[in-house]
Design a protein that fits this description.
By secondary structure, this protein is of the alpha/beta class. Helices cover 55% and strands 8% of the residues. It is built from 14 helices and seven strands. The strands form two sheets. Strands 2-1-4-7-6 form a five-stranded mixed β-sheet, with helices on both faces. A hairpin with a 4-residue loop joins β6 and β7. α8 packs parallel to α11 and α11 crosses α13.
Length: 389
């Protein structure tokens, strides 16, 4: 794939039981407008696609947007797309809103767009095909701008204005010259369109190093503190284990006697194991092409996911350590610290430090096992979504 050929797919996903003809018409008209607005960017090659996989079925809260993202990852990889916009007509469940118009995922370069709420139920607007296609085209342009990291704009007529209700789409009709310049700059940087053609390990290492700023940005934008708040089962499991351990004599014996090197190995191994467990629980299934080629996009997505989880565990490690230090200083009897250990004084600052580091490491290790039972969709939404619309 050349640097002057950046493919963007617009794929409609039909769902069993719904009229596919209406969606095809809306998508075709919206794609025409989308193409006209972006025609000043000659490197962009826009393709209309159709999903031919098995029909989707809703879960308890409806169709999950992140299920469509997984489809998008698979289709984008197999069809070698740099960006993919998925258009569907079913209601897709939102994590924090009453309904969802779109969910752009900058980390995966996939955006999910629903036509279901482009007009209010029962309104005459639903029968106005031109209006609905205009709104859909505007929403597609807004999502593509989000995939290219364009900032929100206060100008209501700008495609990057914030969308509160579907009627807001009617006033949005332009990108500024500055935004077009920014898009031209970001397109090759965000495309993630390389594929392995030899040693896969060397490709992964090379792309990880080359995309390190993007990986770090993706991990930080996921907000590790926010991810931690979505892991109540993990936190409860960790606290239940470390609270029991802190009142055990053997724990104090170990903390008073362990060397710095041994403790460092234990803490490091705990981080590796805990991150691996959470990554397996919450990451998307990143597929290779039919010929076994790994995509640059998959490397970036995996790297940002793993780093985001590492930063989340680092935050929880710090929280557990501070909490246990407070218990040691303000709750645990001082005479018992000095006499409980077998041959060391457990009341020294060094012993306290080793104790809280050991307990915090146990906390993230044991908590990760319980944390894998937390809501997969909620945690994934924080990791992979750049903002619900």
């Amino acid at each position: 794939m050349s640097s002057t050929d950046i493919p963007l797919g617009i794929m409609k996903v039909d769902v069993a039981g719904h009229d596919a003809r209406a969606l095809s018409l809306l998508t075709r008209q919206a794609t025409r407008r989308f193409t006209e607005v972006l025609e000043r960017e000659p490197r962009l090659r826009i393709e209309s696609l159709t999903f031919d996989g098995p029909p989707l079925t809703p879960d308890d809260s409806g169709y999950n947007a992140l299920d469509f993202v997984q489809i998008g990852i698979n289709e984008k990889t197999e069809r070698r797309m740099a960006f993919l916009l998925i258009v569907t007509e079913v209601e897709i469940a939102a994590a924090s809103l009453s309904y969802l118009l779109a969910l752009p995922s900058q980390l995966t370069n996939v955006a999910i767009i629903s036509t279901r709420r482009l007009a209010d139920y029962g309104s005459e607007e639903l029968e106005n095909t031109d209006l609905m296609s205009e709104r859909l085209g505007t929403l597609m342009l807004h999502c593509f701008g989000r995939l290219l990291n364009l900032a929100y704009q206060p100008d209501e007529s700008n495609y990057m204005a914030r969308i509160e209700v579907p009627q807001d789409l009617d006033a949005m009709d332009r990108f500024t010259d500055t935004q077009f310049d920014r898009m031209a700059h970001n397109l090759p940087l965000e495309a993630n369109d390389r594929f392995s053609a030899g040693n896969r390990l060397a490709f992964v290492l090379r792309q990880t190093a080359g995309n390190l700023p993007r990986i770090v940005r993706g991990a930080l934008s996921a907000n590790p503190v926010r991810i931690a708040t979505k892991l109540p089962t993990m936190i409860a499991t960790a606290l239940s284990v470390i609270i029991v351990l802190i009142f055990g004599g053997e724990t104090w014996d170990f903390a008073a006697s362990v060397s710095a090197g041994q403790l460092a190995v234990f803490v490091g191994a705990s981080f590796v194991a805990a991150t691996f467990v959470l990554y397996r629980a919450f990451s998307f299934r990143l597929v290779a092409t039919r010929h076994g080629n790994t995509s640059e996009s998959a490397v970036v997505t995996a790297g940002a996911t793993y780093l985001g989880l590492v930063l989340t565990l680092a935050f929880l490690f710090l929280v557990f350590a501070l909490l246990m230090y407070g218990v040691v200083v303000f709750v645990f009897p001082d005479p018992l610290m000095r006499t409980w250990t077998s041959d060391q004084d457990g009341s020294t600052a060094g012993a306290h430090l080793r104790l809280v580091l050991f307990l915090a490491a146990v906390g993230i290790l044991s908590g990760s096992l319980g944390g894998s039972a937390d809501s997969r969709s909620v945690v994934r939404n924080v990791l992979f979504a750049s903002g619900e619309t």
